[in-house]
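3.2 Worked example (two chains)
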Amino acid sequence: NKKAFVELLFWKSPAAVREMTEGYSSLREGEGAGRSRVPPWTPQQEQELRELYWKYKEVEGSEDVIAAILAHLPAPGRTRRQVVKQLVRL
C-alpha cells in the first residue's frame, strides 16, 4: 500500500501496529485487544444484580450501595466500574 505512511502519522496501539505489519486479518479472535474483554453478563447474573441493588438501595446508613453489592455479588472478578456500567444499562 503506497499510502501506508499516512497511518504512521496517528497514534497506534501495539495490536494495530501488528495488524499493519502482518496484514489486517492477522489477529485471530482471542488475541490482542480482544483478549482483555470482560465476560458478558448472563441473564442469571443480571437478575442477581437487580435483586442486590433493590436490597441495598434503601438500607439506612449504607452510603455506598455499589460496595455492598460487590461484597455480596456471587460472580467473582467483577470490578466496581463493570457493576456500575451494568446497573446503568439495566
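3.2.1 Second chain
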Amino acid sequence: SVPGIENLPCELQRNFQLMRELDQRTEDKKVEIDGLAAQYIESVKNMLPEERVEHLKKIQSAYSKCKEYSDDKVQLAMQTYEMVDKHIRRLDADLARFEADLKDKLEGSDFENPASQSLK
C-alpha cells in the first residue's frame, strides 16, 4: 500500500487501485506481444502467407488492447486529478470561511479592542 493513501477518500483509493490493475494488464499484454513477436520471427520462413497475416493480426490485436488499457488509465488519471482539484478548492473555500469567521470573532472581542477594556 502506498503511504498516506489510506487517508484519502474511498473513491480516490478505488481509482488508484484501478490504475494499478490497468498497469498490470498492460504489462501482461506487453509480455504476450513479445512472445508473439518472437514466435513470428522464429517461424515466419515456414509460414504460408495467410498464416503470416493471421499471426500479425494477433500481434496488432494485442497492441490495440494495450492502447485501450493505456487510454483507460489516462481517463482515470484525469478523473482523479479533477477529484483532487475539487477537494482542494473545497478546502480552500472552507479555510477562507474559517479565517473570516476567526477575524470577525477577534474584532468583536475585547482581546483586540483596548478602548472597550478601558471603558469597563
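3.3 Remarks
The longest helix spans residues 49-108.
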